[in-house]
């Protein structure tokens, strides 16, 4: 895999500096995993467009940017206030600044023994049994170079362990904030969510920046659902439009587990979202909802893999994209049905609304079916606003811009309205409206 030699040298220097900062921890078992992961990354480098899964996404601008490891993990007063405005007023939360926990913005983290919620750095010390059982077993650095890069520098992130039978009524919020006032920075947040048998929870994972800095976030989240667990997982990305973001979510579902994914991409200059789900227990079910809304020169790439490994499993996937200006988008979705996964019910749909002549979308839904008793469908559409619908609204007195906004919002609403967390659904509505010209006038109608 070809790589810019400068990028290879830069990240090796980062790793050597990182090792020195660990002091006595450099001899810990975890660090041997880091070393192996870095050697893997140094060997294969960043993905390139020669790879089929990266055909439409060019990471050359990322490789050429001289990122440094941040040394600031706190916010000034103005940014702190803005960060708190990004969160609901109560409920458990962890807030990270440049990849490290900010305790002053986090809390409360106890819920009557139902959940163990802490930073990953603390979990390495306090819960080595769970770390050893789950960490790195599903997001494997041997297979994915950006996971290898993240594992090389793993230090902090969110750790959530739901005990067997735990049912949380209040969502857990995780907020990852990036700043880079003194020059481009890079951070590698790592999250591990483990849902015990028959547990239920909603987890909101958000990536945000208070300014328009240039930085790189390379995040990895592992989600493990034991038998009968139910997890409603929201991942909201609205970082600086000068930033780079690569995010990988790997999910493993046991028997009768139910996983709902909601991925919303509104920010970032170059964004790649990888979602890989393994339905590894009979009767498991997953639902994948995605919304990407970009303009200017933004680029967003969504790659999904739903792997049906056991019989009687189901998955339903709907991703919608809205592209304006000179923005570019990619949807590359794959459903795999293994030979033993009879009675699979799997559906995938990607719809795209292109608002300008210069915006571009590449969409590639795929099925790989190795069983014969299945129900599987896939499809994709790309189109512009319906002129007849525009004419109808204008004939009812709406100005063209307002009619355009109504139709655009209605297109996105199919993904927003099913969101079960009311606070987040309202927040996403507000963010979507803010991206529309004079969208505040539309707020009264929704």
Which key features would you list for this structure?
446 residues, alpha/beta, 10-stranded mixed β-sheet
Topology:
Layout: H1 5-21, H2 29-44, H3 60-64, H4 77-85, E1 93-97, E2 100-101, E3 115-119, H5 120-126, H6 128-134, H7 145-152, E4 158-162, E5 172-177, E6 185-187, E7 190-195, E8 200-208, E9 215-225, E10 230-238, E11 244-253, E12 258-265, E13 270-279, E14 285-294, E15 299-308, E16 314-323, E17 328-337, E18 344-354, E19 360-369, E20 374-383, H8 387-395, H9 400-416, H10 422-434
Parallel strand pairs: 1-5, 4-7, 5-8, 6-9, 7-9, 8-10, 9-11, 10-12, 11-13, 12-14, 13-15, 14-16, 15-17, 16-18, 17-19, 18-20
Antiparallel strand pairs: 1-2, 3-4
Helix pairs in contact: 2-7, 8-9, 9-10
Kindly describe this structure:
The chain is of the alpha/beta class and 446 residues long. The protein folds into two domains: 317 residues, no CATH class; 60 residues, no CATH class. It has ten helices and 20 strands.
Short note summarizing the structure:
24% of the residues lie in helices and 36% in strands. With 446 residues, it is α/β, with parallel strands linked by helices.
* Total strands: 20
What's the number of helices?
A: 10
| Low confidence ranges | none
Largest sheet: 10 strands, mixed
What is the percent of helical residues?
A: 10-25%
The average pLDDT score comes to 93
Shape: globular
Give the termini distance in whole angstroms. Answer: 48 Å
| Count of domains | 2
Tell me what portion of residues adopts beta-strand conformation.
35-45%
Order of helices and strands: HHHHEEEHHHEEEEEEEEEEEEEEEEEHHH
- With strands numbered from the N-terminus, the spatial order across the biggest sheet is 2-1-5-8-10-12-14-16-18-20
Helix- and strand-based class? alpha/beta
């Amino acid at each position: 895999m070809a790589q810019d030699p400068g990028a290879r040298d830069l990240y090796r220097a980062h790793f050597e500096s990182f090792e020195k900062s660990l002091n006595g921890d450099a001899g810990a078992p975890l660090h041997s995993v880091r070393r192996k992961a870095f050697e893997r990354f140094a060997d294969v480098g960043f993905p390139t467009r020669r790879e089929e899964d990266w055909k439409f996404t060019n990471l050359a601008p990322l490789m050429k940017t001289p990122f440094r490891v941040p040394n600031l993990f706190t916010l000034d007063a103005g940014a702190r206030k803005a960060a708190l405005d990004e969160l609901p007023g109560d409920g458990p939360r962890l807030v990270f600044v440049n990849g490290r926990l900010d305790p002053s913005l986090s809390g409360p983290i106890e819920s009557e023994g139902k959940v163990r919620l802490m930073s990953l750095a603390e979990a390495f010390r306090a819960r080595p049994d769970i770390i050893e059982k789950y960490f790195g077993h599903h997001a494997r650095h041997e297979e994915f170079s950006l996971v290898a890069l993240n594992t090389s520098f793993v230090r902090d992130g969110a750790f959530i362990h739901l005990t067997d039978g735990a049912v949380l009524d209040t969502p857990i919020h995780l907020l990852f904030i990036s700043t880079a006032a003194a020059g481009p920075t890079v951070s590698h947040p790592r999250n591990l969510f483990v849902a015990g048998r028959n547990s239920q929870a909603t987890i909101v994972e958000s990536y945000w920046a208070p300014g328009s800095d240039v930085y790189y976030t390379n995040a990895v989240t592992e989600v493990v659902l034991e038998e009968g667990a139910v997890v409603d997982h929201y991942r909201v990305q609205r970082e600086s439009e000068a930033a780079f973001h690569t995010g990988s979510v790997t999910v493993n579902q046991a028997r009768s587990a139910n996983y709902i994914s909601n991925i919303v991409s509104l920010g970032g200059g170059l964004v790649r979202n990888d979602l890989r789900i393994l339905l590894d227990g009979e009767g498991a079910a997953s639902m994948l909802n995605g919304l990407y809304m970009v303009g200017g020169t933004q680029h967003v790439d969504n790659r999904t893999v739903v792997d049906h490994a056991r019989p009687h499993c189901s998955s339903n996937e709907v991703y919608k994209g809205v592209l304006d200006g000179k923005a570019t988008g990619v949807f590359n979705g794959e459903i795999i049905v293994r030979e033993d996964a009879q009675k699979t019910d799997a559906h995938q749909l990607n719809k795209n609304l292109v608002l300008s002549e210069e915006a571009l979308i590449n969409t590639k839904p795929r099925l790989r079916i190795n069983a014969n008793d299945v129900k599987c469908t896939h499809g994709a559409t790309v189109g512009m606003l319906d002129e007849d619908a525009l004419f109808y609204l204008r004939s009812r007195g709406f100005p063209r811009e307002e009619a355009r906004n109504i139709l655009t919002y209605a297109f996105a609403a199919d993904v927003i309205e099913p969101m079960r967390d009311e606070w987040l659904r309202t927040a996403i509505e507000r963010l979507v409206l803010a991206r529309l010209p004079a969208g505040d006038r539309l707020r009264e109608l929704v």
